[in-house]
Amino acid sequence: MKKLHLSFTSFLADEIKYFLKHKRSLGKKFNTEERALHLLDQYVMKKRIICIKKIDQNFLEEFLISRPRSRPRSYNHLVSVIHRFCDWLVREEKISVSPASLIRSRRATSQRIPFIFNSSNFKTLLTLSEQLPNKPLTLHRSKIYSMIFILLYGLGLRVSEVSRLCKKDVDTVKNVLMIRQTKFSKDRLIPFGPKIAIRLQEYIKIRKDYYGGFDLNDPLFPRTNNMPMSAVTISQTFHNLVPKLQLTIPNGVSEPCLHSLRHSFAVGTLLRWYKLKINPMQKLIHLSTFLGHVDPSSTAVYLTITEDLLKEANLRFEKFATNTTITEVYND
Hints:
hpI Integrase, Chain A; 3 domains; three-stranded antiparallel beta sheet; globular; mainly alpha
């Protein structure tokens, strides 16, 4: 994601800039937070507020009303940004009490479960991507998108990470990808297996043959002008293919999105651990590192309970129950 260049003009401008600078010094991008604070800054200007004492609970509630959000998640994010900024003002001794302290988030009453692709669903997606026709700005679309979807589903990468890959990031000798400056401004190494290695080698050969060269900083997935494929374009192509998959979406489950492939990788990993009789809790930190999370609790969000996972968990519990007496359970 590109760095924003938003202009802050209210009397809060300096404090907002210092707040963002502090958060970014901790390795956070804070782009969506910057957009939210830009909205607040504009509202302060619109209301001609020039004194910190006027930024009270009523003013903040009026601001939130002026920015209607149909989804609880979007509204809660805006409230969260306001809370954090006001807490910052308290710590900086600009105000004594946070005016946002009594503002509550909107409770989500119907949180939907993300759609999880199984191997059959994904094979169909891969088949469809391999039939994509060329476009003026993107040649070899079938090769590009099939490789992109393989990396998203097979390695659990973020679409932004895939779109930024360059030649220098792919090591086909050690079978490792270098993921640079990810969501939390960290670099990480992602190993891949022999099947993905073969696909990558075949793709790189096609890319070299078409462009006649492949420099270290050249994008792995380019458009005809050798600029990197954007995450938005990749997402649009995915959504154009979804109706052709003819998927059955269970009640309470969200429509498939590109991020569903990352969810599917995490759930598939957990399922394989169950089948190999590996304790998932002992390995969660490894999955968290692989996915680029700073905390295993963030990884837990991805571990949606599927029918296959529930079956494996039940089998493990039945085995435990069969081999454990009531006395042993109570003694534990």
